[in-house]
Amino acid sequence: MAETWLVVGLGNPGPRYELTRHNVGQLVVDELAARRSEAFKQHKANARAAETWLRPGGPKIVLAKPNSFMNVSGGPVAGLVKFYGIDADHVVVVHDELDIPFDTIKLKVGGGHGGHNGVRDVAKALGTADFPRVRVGIGRPSGRQDPADWVLDPWGATERKNLDILVGDAADAVEQLIGEGLLAAQQKHHAPRV
């Protein structure tokens, strides 16, 4: 039987949040589904999910978007993990990252949550922080804007020009992480862009 990976895009539900910085993880999962012409269906784990393959023959991937708000993402993720029988080291969490500049992607396994409440809740629900993460840089606000407001704002005009490229690169990073391993994905995506 082919191994199964769960790829979770963190975000908030509903049209109000759809195109905000906090939802970039869901945009990446949408891109992965679009590449495979897959549609999301409601799952009993309080998430929308699509079952597909990285490439013909495997590995199997379950793309998922929790229906819950970001700060309580752990319940849906734990429900999907239990339903599919997936270990934490095969749960890829894709999320926005304030401490990484916009248009930058970083990958890691484990470590702290860096103040990201969605990641914190997933780690709590899974009972471990040792899961792979694709961190999509959104940068910090300039001036005095509260970061909590910044992440819930829509993308700015300049960001929107490069957003499709960023989302595509993050989707590439997920595919490479699953297909070739963390180190190969880090070597490609941590390198300075040319």
Automatic annotation (TrEMBL):
InterPro entries to which the protein is assigned, alphabetical: Pept_tRNA_hydro, Pept_tRNA_hydro_CS, Pept_tRNA_hydro_sf
Pfam families: Pept_tRNA_hydro (PF01195)
Binding site for tRNA: 17, 69, 71, 117
Family matches, as Gene3D superfamilies: Peptidyl-tRNA hydrolase (3.40.50.1470)
Protein origin, superkingdom: Bacteria
Site (Stabilizes the basic form of H active site to accept a proton): 96
Catalytic residues in the record: 22 (proton acceptor)
Subunit: Monomer.
Protein name: Peptidyl-tRNA hydrolase
Gene: pth
